[in-house]
Structure formats: structure tokens, C-alpha cells
Specification:
Blueprint: E1 2-5, H1 11-23, E2 27-30, H2 39-49, H3 62-67, H4 75-84, E3 93-96, E4 99-102
Parallel strand pairs: 1-2
Antiparallel strand pairs: 1-3, 3-4
Amino acid sequence: MITIYHNPRCSKSRQGLALIEESGKDFKIIKYLDEKLTFEELEVIISKLGIKPIDLVRKNEAIWKSDYKGKTLLDKEIIDAMVLNPKLIERPIVIHGDKAAIGRPPESILEII
């Protein structure tokens, strides 16, 4: 089963979802702004992506610039920030088994589905 962490207002997220739909494979959509992720869920996603928590942060978001930018943060604190402010999470994220990809560009999703 493919899971996409999706924000319908984001064009890249919509493009990623379209690629998954075109694949004909089973998938589920998690609208992560509505269904907030837990700390543990984000840890698993970050692990599958093989990145550092900071690499999943949308650094141009106003909340990041006002509250976090320029501070020395531990990985745990960065994940906490994303749990509290899901707008900070890069999108879309696609999980397929033990593989994961951030859909920027959307075509990177094709490598795991």
C-alpha cells in the first residue's frame, strides 16, 4: 500500500497524487494538516527518507522564520516544531513499504512506486 502525506492546496502535492493515481496501485491519502502526525510517526518517516529532520522542514514558512530560524536546535526540537506546526513539513511525502520520497520534483515519487 502506498501512503501519500498530502496537502491539496499545494500544486506539487497534487501533481504527486496524480502520478500515484495514474500508477493504478492502491494508496491512501493522509491530509497531514488535518490529521496531525505524532512525534513517533515523523521519526519513522524521517528514517525511511534517510534524511535529517532539518531536511524535511519548509524553511520559507513564516513560522519557521519567526520562531526557529538562526537557532541551534536538536533533532528532537526540530521534530517537535513540525508536530506543533505541520505547515513546516515538506510535501508531498510518499511511503511505499520501506521506501520513501519527498515529491519535489513530483517525478521522484516514481522511483519508489
